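Team,

Forwarding the record for the chain on the shared tracking sheet. I've put the sequence and predicted structure together so nobody has to dig through attachments.
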Amino acid sequence: MTVFSLLLMASFIILATESSAVAPPKPLPPLPSPRQKKWQEMELTLFVHFTVNTFTDKEWGDGTEDPKIFNPSKLDVSQWVKAAKAGGFKLVILTAKHHDGFCLWPSKTTEHSVKNSPWKNGKGDLVREFVAVCRKEGVAVGLYLSPWDRHEPTYGDSPAYNAFYKKQLTELLTQYGPIDEVWFDGANGEGPNGKRQEYDWPGFYDTIRAHQPDALIAISGPDVRWVGNEEGFARETEWSVQDPHPIYHAGTKEKVWWPAECDVSIRPGWFWHPSEDEKVRTSDNLVDLYFKSVGRNSLLLLNVPPTNEGLFHGTDVQRLKEFKTKLDAIFKDDLAKGKPATASHTRGNDRRFGPAQTLDGKANTYWTTEDGITSAWLEVDLGQPTRFNVAGIQEAIELGQRVTAYRLDHWDGDEWKTFAKGTTVGRKKLDRFEPVTTQRVRLVIEDARACPAIRSFGLWNSEQAVGSRQ
Protein backbone atom coordinates (compact mmCIF):
# COMPACT_ATOMS: atom_id res chain seq x y z
CA MET A 1 0.00 0.00 0.00
CA THR A 2 1.40 3.40 -0.97
CA VAL A 3 1.99 6.27 1.45
CA PHE A 4 -0.74 8.25 -0.32
CA SER A 5 -3.22 5.39 0.19
CA LEU A 6 -2.34 5.20 3.88
CA LEU A 7 -2.84 8.95 4.30
CA LEU A 8 -6.13 8.83 2.43
CA MET A 9 -7.34 5.95 4.60
CA ALA A 10 -6.31 7.85 7.73
CA SER A 11 -8.28 10.86 6.57
CA PHE A 12 -11.36 8.72 6.01
CA ILE A 13 -10.99 7.19 9.46
CA ILE A 14 -10.69 10.66 11.07
CA LEU A 15 -13.74 11.97 9.22
CA ALA A 16 -15.75 8.86 10.03
CA THR A 17 -14.78 9.11 13.69
CA GLU A 18 -15.74 12.80 13.77
CA SER A 19 -19.06 12.15 12.07
CA SER A 20 -20.04 9.33 14.38
CA ALA A 21 -18.72 10.76 17.66
CA VAL A 22 -19.82 14.39 17.64
CA ALA A 23 -23.41 15.46 17.09
CA PRO A 24 -24.38 19.05 16.27
CA PRO A 25 -26.13 21.13 18.92
CA LYS A 26 -29.82 20.49 19.40
CA PRO A 27 -31.98 23.31 18.00
CA LEU A 28 -33.09 25.81 20.64
CA PRO A 29 -36.77 26.68 20.10
CA PRO A 30 -38.43 28.71 18.86
CA LEU A 31 -37.07 28.26 15.36
CA PRO A 32 -37.77 30.01 12.04
CA SER A 33 -40.05 28.27 9.59
CA PRO A 34 -38.57 27.71 6.12
CA ARG A 35 -40.52 30.70 4.78
CA GLN A 36 -39.32 32.92 7.64
CA LYS A 37 -35.69 31.92 7.14
CA LYS A 38 -35.96 32.53 3.40
CA TRP A 39 -37.50 35.94 4.08
CA GLN A 40 -34.79 36.96 6.55
CA GLU A 41 -32.08 36.02 4.07
CA MET A 42 -33.58 38.43 1.53
CA GLU A 43 -32.53 41.40 3.73
CA LEU A 44 -34.08 43.99 1.38
CA THR A 45 -37.67 44.24 0.16
CA LEU A 46 -39.40 47.07 -1.67
CA PHE A 47 -42.90 48.53 -1.32
CA VAL A 48 -44.79 50.17 -4.20
CA HIS A 49 -47.59 52.51 -3.08
CA PHE A 50 -49.75 53.28 -6.10
CA THR A 51 -53.49 54.01 -6.31
CA VAL A 52 -55.95 56.89 -6.84
CA ASN A 53 -53.99 58.87 -4.21
CA THR A 54 -51.20 59.20 -6.76
CA PHE A 55 -53.59 61.29 -8.87
CA THR A 56 -55.21 63.30 -6.06
CA ASP A 57 -51.92 64.22 -4.34
CA LYS A 58 -53.16 62.70 -1.07
CA GLU A 59 -51.71 60.19 1.38
CA TRP A 60 -55.06 58.68 2.37
CA GLY A 61 -58.01 58.54 0.01
CA ASP A 62 -61.53 58.60 1.42
CA GLY A 63 -63.14 56.17 -1.01
CA THR A 64 -65.14 58.78 -2.92
CA GLU A 65 -62.59 59.11 -5.72
CA ASP A 66 -63.86 58.67 -9.26
CA PRO A 67 -62.10 55.64 -10.86
CA LYS A 68 -61.73 57.74 -13.99
CA ILE A 69 -58.86 59.67 -12.41
CA PHE A 70 -56.70 56.55 -12.51
CA ASN A 71 -54.96 56.78 -15.88
CA PRO A 72 -51.15 56.40 -15.82
CA SER A 73 -50.04 57.40 -19.31
CA LYS A 74 -46.62 55.71 -19.30
CA LEU A 75 -47.06 52.89 -16.79
CA ASP A 76 -44.13 50.49 -16.93
CA VAL A 77 -44.05 47.84 -14.21
CA SER A 78 -40.86 46.47 -15.72
CA GLN A 79 -39.13 49.76 -14.88
CA TRP A 80 -40.18 49.42 -11.22
CA VAL A 81 -39.00 45.86 -10.81
CA LYS A 82 -35.74 46.36 -12.69
CA ALA A 83 -34.96 49.41 -10.52
CA ALA A 84 -35.71 47.38 -7.39
CA LYS A 85 -33.52 44.54 -8.61
CA ALA A 86 -30.69 46.95 -9.47
CA GLY A 87 -30.90 48.22 -5.88
CA GLY A 88 -30.44 44.73 -4.46
CA PHE A 89 -34.07 44.20 -3.44
CA LYS A 90 -35.26 40.59 -3.54
CA LEU A 91 -39.04 41.02 -3.10
CA VAL A 92 -41.48 43.73 -4.23
CA ILE A 93 -44.85 44.37 -2.57
CA LEU A 94 -47.65 46.10 -4.49
CA THR A 95 -50.56 47.94 -2.85
CA ALA A 96 -53.28 45.92 -4.56
CA LYS A 97 -55.76 47.93 -2.45
CA HIS A 98 -55.10 50.82 -0.08
CA HIS A 99 -57.47 52.39 2.47
CA ASP A 100 -59.44 54.12 -0.31
CA GLY A 101 -60.72 50.72 -1.44
CA PHE A 102 -59.64 51.16 -5.08
CA CYS A 103 -58.54 47.80 -6.50
CA LEU A 104 -55.67 47.56 -8.96
CA TRP A 105 -57.19 44.39 -10.39
CA PRO A 106 -60.68 43.98 -11.95
CA SER A 107 -62.27 42.62 -8.78
CA LYS A 108 -65.73 41.09 -8.97
CA THR A 109 -66.40 42.31 -5.43
CA THR A 110 -66.58 46.05 -6.21
CA GLU A 111 -66.96 48.59 -8.99
CA HIS A 112 -64.24 50.72 -7.38
CA SER A 113 -61.39 49.30 -9.46
CA VAL A 114 -59.33 49.59 -12.62
CA LYS A 115 -62.16 48.05 -14.64
CA ASN A 116 -63.96 51.39 -14.42
CA SER A 117 -60.92 53.51 -15.19
CA PRO A 118 -59.77 54.80 -18.59
CA TRP A 119 -56.45 52.99 -18.16
CA LYS A 120 -56.33 50.41 -20.97
CA ASN A 121 -60.01 51.18 -21.58
CA GLY A 122 -60.95 49.38 -18.38
CA LYS A 123 -59.36 46.13 -19.58
CA GLY A 124 -56.17 46.42 -17.54
CA ASP A 125 -55.08 44.32 -14.58
CA LEU A 126 -52.12 45.89 -12.79
CA VAL A 127 -51.74 42.99 -10.36
CA ARG A 128 -51.36 40.57 -13.27
CA GLU A 129 -48.77 42.76 -14.97
CA PHE A 130 -46.88 43.17 -11.71
CA VAL A 131 -46.76 39.45 -10.91
CA ALA A 132 -45.69 38.57 -14.45
CA VAL A 133 -42.79 41.04 -14.44
CA CYS A 134 -41.60 39.97 -10.99
CA ARG A 135 -41.47 36.36 -12.13
CA LYS A 136 -39.66 37.28 -15.32
CA GLU A 137 -37.04 39.23 -13.36
CA GLY A 138 -36.64 36.58 -10.67
CA VAL A 139 -38.02 38.81 -7.91
CA ALA A 140 -40.37 37.49 -5.22
CA VAL A 141 -43.99 38.72 -5.22
CA GLY A 142 -45.79 40.45 -2.36
CA LEU A 143 -49.31 41.89 -2.25
CA TYR A 144 -50.79 44.37 0.22
CA LEU A 145 -54.55 44.31 0.69
CA SER A 146 -55.65 46.97 3.13
CA PRO A 147 -58.09 45.58 5.71
CA TRP A 148 -59.48 49.11 6.13
CA ASP A 149 -61.73 50.01 3.20
CA ARG A 150 -63.22 53.52 3.19
CA HIS A 151 -65.28 52.83 0.06
CA GLU A 152 -67.00 49.55 0.92
CA PRO A 153 -70.48 50.10 2.46
CA THR A 154 -70.30 46.92 4.56
CA TYR A 155 -67.20 48.08 6.42
CA GLY A 156 -68.15 48.26 10.11
CA ASP A 157 -70.69 45.45 9.70
CA SER A 158 -68.08 42.97 10.82
CA PRO A 159 -69.49 39.63 9.55
CA ALA A 160 -70.50 41.09 6.18
CA TYR A 161 -67.24 42.91 5.57
CA ASN A 162 -65.08 39.99 6.68
CA ALA A 163 -66.83 37.81 4.12
CA PHE A 164 -66.30 40.53 1.49
CA TYR A 165 -62.62 40.84 2.39
CA LYS A 166 -62.04 37.08 2.19
CA LYS A 167 -63.49 37.14 -1.32
CA GLN A 168 -60.94 39.79 -2.31
CA LEU A 169 -58.14 37.78 -0.71
CA THR A 170 -59.30 34.68 -2.56
CA GLU A 171 -59.25 36.52 -5.89
CA LEU A 172 -55.68 37.64 -5.32
CA LEU A 173 -54.52 34.24 -4.09
CA THR A 174 -56.13 32.10 -6.79
CA GLN A 175 -55.78 34.07 -10.03
CA TYR A 176 -52.10 34.98 -10.19
CA GLY A 177 -50.06 31.91 -9.33
CA PRO A 178 -47.68 31.65 -6.36
CA ILE A 179 -47.61 34.66 -4.02
CA ASP A 180 -44.62 34.91 -1.68
CA GLU A 181 -45.95 37.40 0.86
CA VAL A 182 -49.27 38.86 1.95
CA TRP A 183 -48.83 42.16 3.81
CA PHE A 184 -51.37 43.57 6.26
CA ASP A 185 -51.29 46.67 8.38
CA GLY A 186 -53.52 47.28 11.37
CA ALA A 187 -55.32 50.40 10.09
CA ASN A 188 -58.88 50.32 11.33
CA GLY A 189 -61.29 53.25 11.11
CA GLU A 190 -65.02 53.48 11.65
CA GLY A 191 -67.42 52.28 8.99
CA PRO A 192 -70.48 54.10 7.60
CA ASN A 193 -72.48 52.69 10.53
CA GLY A 194 -70.16 54.45 12.98
CA LYS A 195 -68.77 51.14 14.22
CA ARG A 196 -65.19 49.97 14.13
CA GLN A 197 -64.69 46.83 12.08
CA GLU A 198 -63.64 43.72 13.98
CA TYR A 199 -61.27 41.91 11.65
CA ASP A 200 -61.45 38.13 11.45
CA TRP A 201 -57.69 37.64 11.51
CA PRO A 202 -57.82 33.85 12.01
CA GLY A 203 -60.22 33.60 9.07
CA PHE A 204 -57.92 35.75 6.93
CA TYR A 205 -54.96 33.52 7.78
CA ASP A 206 -56.97 30.39 7.03
CA THR A 207 -57.84 31.82 3.61
CA ILE A 208 -54.16 32.48 2.87
CA ARG A 209 -53.00 29.08 4.08
CA ALA A 210 -55.73 27.34 2.07
CA HIS A 211 -54.70 28.94 -1.22
CA GLN A 212 -51.05 29.93 -0.69
CA PRO A 213 -49.64 27.74 2.11
CA ASP A 214 -46.07 28.93 1.49
CA ALA A 215 -46.88 32.65 1.58
CA LEU A 216 -45.40 34.70 4.39
CA ILE A 217 -47.93 36.73 6.40
CA ALA A 218 -46.83 40.17 7.59
CA ILE A 219 -47.22 42.62 9.48
CA SER A 220 -50.46 42.00 11.32
CA GLY A 221 -49.73 38.31 11.12
CA PRO A 222 -47.91 35.35 12.61
CA ASP A 223 -44.75 35.35 10.47
CA VAL A 224 -43.35 38.89 10.64
CA ARG A 225 -43.92 41.76 13.07
CA TRP A 226 -43.73 45.52 12.70
CA VAL A 227 -40.64 47.00 14.32
CA GLY A 228 -42.73 49.77 15.86
CA ASN A 229 -41.81 52.82 13.77
CA GLU A 230 -41.85 53.93 10.14
CA GLU A 231 -38.35 55.40 10.23
CA GLY A 232 -36.54 52.30 8.97
CA PHE A 233 -34.51 51.34 12.03
CA ALA A 234 -34.58 48.60 14.65
CA ARG A 235 -33.49 48.66 18.26
CA GLU A 236 -29.92 47.75 19.13
CA THR A 237 -31.35 44.71 20.91
CA GLU A 238 -33.85 43.25 18.41
CA TRP A 239 -34.85 39.65 19.08
CA SER A 240 -36.51 37.30 16.63
CA VAL A 241 -37.68 35.37 19.71
CA GLN A 242 -40.85 37.02 21.02
CA ASP A 243 -43.84 36.45 23.27
CA PRO A 244 -46.85 35.29 21.22
CA HIS A 245 -49.43 37.85 20.13
CA PRO A 246 -52.89 37.00 21.53
CA ILE A 247 -54.53 37.39 18.10
CA TYR A 248 -51.81 36.64 15.57
CA HIS A 249 -50.64 33.54 17.49
CA ALA A 250 -53.98 32.56 19.02
CA GLY A 251 -53.74 29.46 21.20
CA THR A 252 -49.96 29.65 21.51
CA LYS A 253 -48.42 30.14 24.94
CA GLU A 254 -44.75 29.45 24.23
CA LYS A 255 -42.40 32.03 22.75
CA VAL A 256 -42.48 32.29 18.96
CA TRP A 257 -40.08 33.13 16.13
CA TRP A 258 -41.39 36.53 15.01
CA PRO A 259 -38.69 38.65 13.33
CA ALA A 260 -38.99 42.39 12.79
CA GLU A 261 -39.46 44.39 9.61
CA CYS A 262 -38.41 48.05 9.35
CA ASP A 263 -40.61 49.95 6.91
CA VAL A 264 -39.75 53.41 5.64
CA SER A 265 -40.36 55.49 2.51
CA ILE A 266 -37.67 56.88 0.24
CA ARG A 267 -39.66 60.15 0.36
CA PRO A 268 -41.47 61.96 3.19
CA GLY A 269 -44.79 60.50 1.98
CA TRP A 270 -45.77 56.97 1.00
CA PHE A 271 -47.40 58.07 -2.24
CA TRP A 272 -45.83 60.26 -4.92
CA HIS A 273 -46.20 64.01 -4.50
CA PRO A 274 -44.51 66.35 -6.99
CA SER A 275 -43.58 68.68 -4.12
CA GLU A 276 -41.33 65.92 -2.73
CA ASP A 277 -39.24 65.32 -5.84
CA GLU A 278 -36.37 67.21 -4.21
CA LYS A 279 -36.78 65.42 -0.87
CA VAL A 280 -35.66 61.92 -1.82
CA ARG A 281 -33.39 60.19 0.69
CA THR A 282 -29.69 60.22 -0.15
CA SER A 283 -27.82 57.01 -0.83
CA ASP A 284 -25.75 57.64 2.32
CA ASN A 285 -28.96 57.77 4.34
CA LEU A 286 -30.12 54.50 2.79
CA VAL A 287 -26.80 52.87 3.70
CA ASP A 288 -27.24 54.11 7.27
CA LEU A 289 -30.73 52.59 7.35
CA TYR A 290 -29.30 49.28 6.11
CA PHE A 291 -26.94 49.14 9.07
CA LYS A 292 -29.75 50.05 11.47
CA SER A 293 -32.24 47.51 10.10
CA VAL A 294 -30.56 44.56 8.38
CA GLY A 295 -27.54 45.13 10.61
CA ARG A 296 -29.76 44.81 13.69
CA ASN A 297 -31.34 41.43 12.97
CA SER A 298 -34.23 42.89 10.98
CA LEU A 299 -35.27 43.42 7.37
CA LEU A 300 -35.54 46.74 5.52
CA LEU A 301 -38.77 47.43 3.62
CA LEU A 302 -38.23 50.55 1.51
CA ASN A 303 -41.17 52.22 -0.22
CA VAL A 304 -40.70 53.77 -3.67
CA PRO A 305 -43.89 55.35 -5.10
CA PRO A 306 -44.51 55.67 -8.86
CA THR A 307 -45.48 59.03 -10.33
CA ASN A 308 -48.88 59.71 -11.91
CA GLU A 309 -47.33 58.65 -15.22
CA GLY A 310 -46.78 55.19 -13.72
CA LEU A 311 -42.98 55.36 -13.50
CA PHE A 312 -40.47 55.55 -10.68
CA HIS A 313 -39.07 59.07 -10.67
CA GLY A 314 -35.54 59.29 -12.08
CA THR A 315 -34.13 60.53 -8.79
CA ASP A 316 -35.55 57.54 -6.90
CA VAL A 317 -34.13 55.14 -9.49
CA GLN A 318 -30.71 56.74 -9.21
CA ARG A 319 -30.76 56.52 -5.41
CA LEU A 320 -31.50 52.80 -5.54
CA LYS A 321 -28.59 52.24 -7.90
CA GLU A 322 -26.23 54.32 -5.76
CA PHE A 323 -27.35 52.45 -2.64
CA LYS A 324 -26.43 49.08 -4.16
CA THR A 325 -23.10 50.42 -5.42
CA LYS A 326 -22.16 51.66 -1.96
CA LEU A 327 -23.19 48.45 -0.23
CA ASP A 328 -21.16 46.42 -2.71
CA ALA A 329 -18.14 48.64 -2.06
CA ILE A 330 -18.44 48.29 1.72
CA PHE A 331 -18.67 44.50 1.74
CA LYS A 332 -16.44 43.72 -1.25
CA ASP A 333 -13.38 42.55 0.68
CA ASP A 334 -13.86 40.57 3.89
CA LEU A 335 -10.51 40.99 5.63
CA ALA A 336 -11.14 38.00 7.92
CA LYS A 337 -12.22 35.52 5.25
CA GLY A 338 -9.99 32.46 5.14
CA LYS A 339 -7.62 33.73 7.82
CA PRO A 340 -6.27 31.39 10.55
CA ALA A 341 -8.50 31.18 13.60
CA THR A 342 -8.43 29.63 17.07
CA ALA A 343 -11.09 29.33 19.74
CA SER A 344 -11.38 28.80 23.47
CA HIS A 345 -13.72 25.85 22.85
CA THR A 346 -14.64 23.65 19.89
CA ARG A 347 -17.39 21.09 20.09
CA GLY A 348 -15.74 17.70 20.62
CA ASN A 349 -12.54 19.11 19.12
CA ASP A 350 -14.29 18.38 15.83
CA ARG A 351 -13.05 20.58 13.00
CA ARG A 352 -16.54 20.47 11.46
CA PHE A 353 -17.50 22.82 14.29
CA GLY A 354 -14.19 24.68 14.54
CA PRO A 355 -13.52 28.43 14.29
CA ALA A 356 -12.43 28.17 10.64
CA GLN A 357 -16.07 27.44 9.77
CA THR A 358 -17.01 31.05 10.52
CA LEU A 359 -14.45 32.39 8.05
CA ASP A 360 -15.04 30.08 5.07
CA GLY A 361 -17.76 32.15 3.42
CA LYS A 362 -20.18 29.21 3.36
CA ALA A 363 -23.82 29.43 4.37
CA ASN A 364 -24.09 25.99 5.98
CA THR A 365 -21.11 25.90 8.37
CA TYR A 366 -20.62 27.35 11.85
CA TRP A 367 -18.39 27.36 14.92
CA THR A 368 -19.90 25.97 18.09
CA THR A 369 -18.93 24.67 21.50
CA GLU A 370 -19.91 21.88 23.87
CA ASP A 371 -23.37 21.99 25.40
CA GLY A 372 -23.44 24.10 28.53
CA ILE A 373 -20.71 26.47 27.33
CA THR A 374 -22.33 29.90 27.11
CA SER A 375 -19.22 32.08 27.02
CA ALA A 376 -16.34 31.53 24.62
CA TRP A 377 -14.02 33.38 22.27
CA LEU A 378 -12.85 33.08 18.68
CA GLU A 379 -9.59 34.72 17.61
CA VAL A 380 -8.61 35.67 14.06
CA ASP A 381 -5.02 36.29 12.96
CA LEU A 382 -5.10 38.78 10.07
CA GLY A 383 -1.45 38.06 9.24
CA GLN A 384 -0.31 41.66 9.50
CA PRO A 385 -1.56 44.94 11.00
CA THR A 386 -4.84 45.60 9.21
CA ARG A 387 -7.24 48.55 9.32
CA PHE A 388 -11.02 48.04 9.52
CA ASN A 389 -14.11 49.90 10.72
CA VAL A 390 -16.98 47.43 10.21
CA ALA A 391 -17.61 44.03 11.77
CA GLY A 392 -20.36 41.52 11.03
CA ILE A 393 -21.60 38.48 12.92
CA GLN A 394 -24.21 35.91 11.96
CA GLU A 395 -25.74 33.07 13.94
CA ALA A 396 -26.92 29.75 12.51
CA ILE A 397 -30.55 30.74 13.11
CA GLU A 398 -31.88 27.33 12.09
CA LEU A 399 -30.56 26.31 15.54
CA GLY A 400 -32.34 29.24 17.20
CA GLN A 401 -31.22 32.67 18.37
CA ARG A 402 -28.67 32.18 21.16
CA VAL A 403 -26.26 35.04 21.82
CA THR A 404 -27.32 37.58 24.46
CA ALA A 405 -24.06 39.55 24.87
CA TYR A 406 -20.79 39.84 22.95
CA ARG A 407 -17.81 42.12 22.53
CA LEU A 408 -15.04 42.65 19.99
CA ASP A 409 -11.43 43.01 21.17
CA HIS A 410 -8.17 43.80 19.44
CA TRP A 411 -4.60 43.09 20.59
CA ASP A 412 -2.62 46.31 20.92
CA GLY A 413 0.72 44.60 21.54
CA ASP A 414 0.33 44.44 25.30
CA GLU A 415 -3.27 43.58 26.04
CA TRP A 416 -6.75 43.00 24.62
CA LYS A 417 -8.83 46.14 24.24
CA THR A 418 -12.54 46.30 23.49
CA PHE A 419 -13.65 48.35 20.48
CA ALA A 420 -17.31 47.26 20.16
CA LYS A 421 -20.00 45.62 22.27
CA GLY A 422 -23.44 44.25 21.52
CA THR A 423 -26.32 42.12 22.67
CA THR A 424 -28.38 40.16 20.15
CA VAL A 425 -26.90 38.80 16.92
CA GLY A 426 -29.47 36.66 15.11
CA ARG A 427 -29.55 36.61 11.30
CA LYS A 428 -27.03 39.46 11.04
CA LYS A 429 -25.44 42.01 13.35
CA LEU A 430 -23.27 44.79 11.94
CA ASP A 431 -21.13 47.12 14.03
CA ARG A 432 -19.52 50.35 12.87
CA PHE A 433 -16.75 51.97 14.89
CA GLU A 434 -13.76 54.26 14.66
CA PRO A 435 -11.04 52.57 12.55
CA VAL A 436 -8.96 49.92 14.32
CA THR A 437 -5.57 48.72 13.12
CA THR A 438 -4.40 45.39 14.49
CA GLN A 439 -3.26 41.89 13.52
CA ARG A 440 -5.31 39.96 16.07
CA VAL A 441 -9.05 40.25 16.69
CA ARG A 442 -11.31 38.39 19.09
CA LEU A 443 -15.04 37.82 19.01
CA VAL A 444 -15.95 37.18 22.63
CA ILE A 445 -19.35 35.62 23.35
CA GLU A 446 -20.00 36.85 26.87
CA ASP A 447 -23.33 35.12 27.36
CA ALA A 448 -25.82 33.01 25.42
CA ARG A 449 -29.09 31.09 25.91
CA ALA A 450 -27.22 27.92 24.92
CA CYS A 451 -23.88 27.04 23.34
CA PRO A 452 -23.24 29.66 20.62
CA ALA A 453 -23.47 28.70 16.94
CA ILE A 454 -21.69 31.39 14.89
CA ARG A 455 -22.17 31.10 11.13
CA SER A 456 -19.87 33.94 10.10
CA PHE A 457 -17.59 36.65 11.38
CA GLY A 458 -16.28 39.32 9.02
CA LEU A 459 -14.29 42.54 9.02
CA TRP A 460 -14.34 45.32 6.43
CA ASN A 461 -12.71 48.69 5.89
CA SER A 462 -14.71 51.26 3.97
CA GLU A 463 -15.28 54.99 3.95
CA GLN A 464 -18.76 54.23 2.58
CA ALA A 465 -19.86 52.93 6.01
CA VAL A 466 -21.28 56.31 6.92
CA GLY A 467 -23.71 57.30 9.64
CA SER A 468 -24.05 57.10 13.36
CA ARG A 469 -21.94 54.54 15.18
CA GLN A 470 -24.77 54.17 17.70
